[in-house]
C-alpha cells in the first residue's frame, strides 16, 4: 500500500521505514508534491498529529499518518512538551533547543523525563486512528553522541545500557523508542486490517 508520512525529516523517515510492513511504499511530503509548512497549531500532541494528517488527506487525497512528539521533563512541569521542536524559538534548531533545556535544568537534581509520541492515521475513507508510545529516561548534563536528532544527544533511556539515543544505531533506538512503540501500534492495525 502507498502511505504518506507527513514529514520531510529524513531522520524520521529512516527510523520509520524499516518498522512498516514490507509491502508498504512510504512516501514523504515532497514525494506527493506537498511543500508547504503543515499546520501545527494545537496545544496537544494528539491535536497536532491529527491536524497534520488530516491536512494532507484533505489537500492531497493520500492516506497519511503524522506524528507529534514531545519531551516532557518532570522538573520543568512537563516542558517543553508539545513545544519541543520550537522550545528555543520558531527557527526550530535542535542545538538551540538542547542548549536551552540544559540551561533550564541547571541546579535541578531531578532530571527524569519521558519522550511521548502520538501517531494519527487517516484512511482513504477519512476515518482517523491514533496510536501512542512513550519511553522514560533522564536528561544528561552534557551532549553525548552524534547520531539521532533533536534531543537524542541528551536523552538517556531508562531501558538502555547507559547510552543516549544519539549514541545508538537506528536499529538499537528502534527497539525501545517512543516513536517505534507508536508505530508498532500503527503496524499492528495495518496488518490486522489487511491494507
Give structural notes.
- It is a single chain.
- This protein is an alpha/beta fold and 195 residues long.
- Helix content is 28%, strand content 23%.
- The chain has helices at residues 10-16, 45-60, 94-104, 170-174, 178-193; strands at residues 2-5, 25-27, 64-73, 80-81, 112-122, 128-139, 155-157.
- Strands 1, 2, 3, 4, 5, 6 and 7 form a seven-stranded mixed beta sheet that branches.
- Helix 1 (10-16) links the parallel strand 1 (2-5) and strand 2.
- It is globular and about 50 Å long.
- It starts with a strand and ends with a helix.
- The mean pLDDT is 94.
Number of helices: 5
Number of strands: 7
Helix content: 25-40%
Largest sheet: 7 strands, mixed
* CATH fold-level label: Maf protein
Mind telling me the CATH class?
Alpha Beta
- Spell the H/E element sequence: EHEHEEHEEEHH
- Determine the N-to-C terminus distance: 7 Å
Measured by DSSP, the beta-strand proportion falls in: 15-25%
Principal-axes shape call:
globular
In short:
With 195 residues, the chain is of the alpha/beta class.
List the helices and strands and how they pair.
Layout: E1 2-5, H1 10-16, E2 25-27, H2 45-60, E3 64-73, E4 80-81, H3 94-104, E5 112-122, E6 128-139, E7 155-157, H4 170-174, H5 178-193
Parallel strand pairs: 1-2, 1-3
Antiparallel strand pairs: 3-4, 3-5, 5-6, 6-7
What would the keywords be for this entry?
Maf protein, 7 strands, 5 helices, globular, 195 residues
